[in-house]
Amino acid sequence: QVQLQQSGPGLVKPSQTLSLTCTVSGDSIISDTYYWSWIRQAPGKGLEWIGAIGYFGTPSYSPSLKSRTSIFRDTLKNQFFLHMTSVTPEDTAIYYCARIGGGDWGQGTQVTISS
Question: What pLDDT, on the 0 to 100 scale, is given for residue 22?
Answer without folding.
Answer: 98
